[in-house]
Design goal:
The protein is α/β, with parallel strands linked by helices and 234 residues long. Helices cover 36% and strands 26% of the residues. It is globular, with a radius of gyration of 18 Å.
């Protein structure tokens, strides 16, 4: 079933054209990676899908899913890194948008506990978020995003700034959510090699034109061969 369709999306950022006529669709169970040049509008596009930034032209169509049922992990900021709260409180706060209330039920706490277990952070549930390593913080924020959804995750460069071992571990966690828990994933990344290793669809945003299709179709494009080598393999 198709969960999301974007048709001819145009967006501006600080009065400059940031997204220029992007079209793509996401089916239930997909793992879509959005790759491309710096300044091509990848993060801006995610914000447009979520309604956090205005779309100047085109439309976003949701099928059988509400915006409140989408989990979002934005790019890391210093404020996030220094957030003075316990891990369990950060994770549980992901339920606020889903319920539209400022108090938590027993069900909310159970879901938060299950997501901490899934992310393998139950043992640090009482630690302060700002004392954690970068990889641990991303696990916590991913668990928080899962508290908003069990269907669709939007991730904006979740591995940025992490070392190679932690990055690989994060990709495997996201793959596990996708394959074993059935969570559909849309992820912005600059890591082309990991994108083609884990994703089944690719949206490549470049200033001279966009590509959307299966990972195998992307590997046959000049852009992929230029980045990954003449045979298009990572």
């Amino acid at each position: 079933m198709q969960l999301l369709k974007c048709e001819n999306i145009h967006m501006n950022y600080d009065s400059t054209k940031a997204v220029n006529g992007v079209s793509f669709s996401v089916d239930e169970g997909d793992f879509l990676c959005i790759v491309g040049e710096n300044g091509a509008g990848k993060s801006t596009l995610l914000k447009g899908i979520l309604g956090l930034q205005k779309i100047s032209e085109g439309r976003v169509i949701f099928n059988g899913i509400k915006k409140s049922e989408i989990g979002y992990l934005p790019q890391r900021t210093q404020v996030q890194k220094d957030f003075p709260a316990a891990v369990k409180e950060v994770v549980l706060s992901g339920r606020i948008g889903r319920r539209g209330k400022l108090f938590y039920s027993a069900e909310d706490r159970q879901i938060a506990a299950e997501n901490m277990e899934t992310m393998k952070i139950s043992d640090i549930r009482n630690k302060s978020f700002n004392e954690l390593s970068g990889g641990q913080q991303q696990r916590v924020l991913l668990a928080r995003a899962l508290c908003a959804t069990d269907r669709l995750l939007l991730l904006d460069e979740p591995t940025a700034g992490l070392d190679p071992f932690v990055t690989e571990d994060m990709y495997r966690l996201i793959e596990h959510l996708n394959l074993e828990h059935g969570v559909t994933v849309i992820m912005v990344t600059h890591d082309i090699k990991s994108a083609v290793k884990y994703a089944n669809k690719i949206l490549c945003m470049e200033h001279d034109g966009d590509f959307f299709g299966t990972t195998q179709e992307y590997l046959d494009t000049p852009a992929a061969k230029r980045i990954l080598g003449g045979d298009g393999n990572a």
